[in-house]
Write a structure and sequence with these properties.
Elements: H1 13-23, H2 33-49, H3 53-68, H4 73-82, H5 97-109
Helix pairs in contact: 3-4, 3-5
Length: about 110
């Protein structure tokens, strides 16, 4: 049987309250102001570049696959070129894990 938080000496009351608040519906990281600001910037960038939500989600899936298995990186690069966001000169060198993470994350924001 678990010790109730108010009686558990290993949990500070303010810690317990913040954890409980974070677990309530509507209190996800996506609701944080800085995340909402980043999402708005992403949507603006998509509008400026003509990138559609399905294209971004497709790039995100390709990025996730390349993160799991580096053999998927050429497919990600092809999709990136096909989207018009990069050309062959932009995509030389080793695997760009930072770009993969950016696209994987961005796809989850739209």
């Amino acid at each position: 049987m678990a010790i109730p938080p108010q009686q558990n000496p290993n949990v500070a009351p303010q810690q317990d309250a913040s954890v409980m608040k974070a677990m309530q519906p509507g209190n996800s990281a996506m609701d944080r102001p800085e995340v909402q600001q980043a999402k708005q910037q992403l949507l603006t960038l998509m509008q400026e570049t003509g990138l559609t939500t399905p294209q971004l989600k497709d790039l995100g899936k390709a990025a996730e696959m390349a993160i799991r298995d580096k053999r998927g990186y050429p497919m990600f690069l092809k999709k990136l070129r096909d989207s018009g966001l990069a050309d062959a000169e932009d995509l030389r060198g080793d695997i760009d894990y930072q770009a993969l993470v950016v696209f994987a994350t961005a796809a989850k924001m739209v």
